[in-house]
Specification:
By secondary structure, the chain is mainly beta. It has one helix spanning 2-20; strands at residues 24-29, 37-39, 43-57, 71-77, 83-86, 96-100, 104-119, 127-141, 165-169, 181-188, 191-192, 197-202, 211-214, 220-224, 230-241, 250-263.
Length: 269
């Protein structure tokens, strides 16, 4: 009986951690696969452009404004591995246009400030949940007159960038097509994270359904990207009883990571 009670208690804690904090962060891009282009007047030097803006809430492409209370910052990683901090403004959805002059992969990454949520009335200074949330978006800059399916990227997308909670794909998902599978690995502090809930969802179609699974002991999960072109999101999350110093201030810990990319439409000959 004691064992059954312990299992039930743990399940309830996990549900609390995943449901109590409704908002989550992701990064929207106006173009995940921009190609360099050149114009004598408007772009004498070949360039590509995209705009990154923050999704915050539960509904695509965005639901709510993110105040400075939650905002943890934005940076990008260049093809050579250089990390560049990006300035945003609190107005709107923190949209930033970014021009790129060389081909190759860019990773945009953001996070929410770690914090406690839902105070317990009976215990001053104690909360139901401690949460951390991380997001990244994958952008492939292409040569002129090249389709995403022909482009060759480095292994930047398939290597961790150092987020505390991170989704790492096994291939460049910007080159995949509807019906393909995508294997990802979830890491926490660089180590494989087992038993994370993972799901893939097309963001553009109102008829899209989640493909849901869980990570194995190696932190890996395989997702099927069904039917739809356009922007996709992979979300990984896990709630568990707090331990150590956090247990002195919260009942549970909630970790969430998101990764956005796009399945490009390429006209068939």
């Amino acid at each position: 009986m004691k064992t059954k009670f312990s299992v039930l208690f743990f399940v309830l804690l996990c549900l609390t951690a995943s449901q109590a904090w409704g908002h989550h962060i992701w990064l929207n891009m106006t173009n995940h696969t921009p190609a360099l282009w050149q114009h004598q007047k408007y772009a004498p030097e070949p360039r590509a452009k995209t705009v990154v803006y923050v999704g915050w809430g539960d509904f695509y492409p965005l639901e709510d404004f993110m105040s400075d209370r939650f905002w943890g910052g934005l940076h990008r990683i260049e093809p050579d591995g250089t990390r560049v901090e990006m300035e945003t403004v609190a107005a709107g959805y923190r949209a930033v246009r970014h021009d790129m002059y060389t081909v190759g992969p860019r990773i945009f990454a953001a996070q929410v400030k770690p914090a406690f949520f839902d105070p317990v009335k009976e215990r001053e200074g104690f909360f139901r949940v401690y949460y951390e949330q991380y997001a990244k978006a994958l952008v492939s800059v292409l040569p002129q007159d090249t389709t995403p399916l022909d482009a060759v990227d480095s292994d930047s997308f398939t290597s961790p960038i150092g987020q505390k909670v991170e989704i790492v794909p096994s291939v460049n998902p910007n080159r995949l097509q509807p019906g393909d599978t995508l294997q990802v690995q979830v890491l926490v502090e660089g180590a494989p994270a087992a038993d994370f809930e993972v799901y893939a969802l097309n963001l553009a179609s109102p008829n899209a359904k989640k493909y849901e699974t869980r990570t194995d002991e190696a932190g890996k999960a395989t997702l099927r990207l069904e039917t739809f072109y356009g922007p996709w999101i992979v979300t990984a999350r896990h709630g568990f009883p707090a331990t150590g110093e956090i247990a002195e201030k919260a009942e549970t810990v909630s970790y969430t990571a998101t990764m956005t990319f796009a399945l490009p439409y390429v006209a068939k000959e």
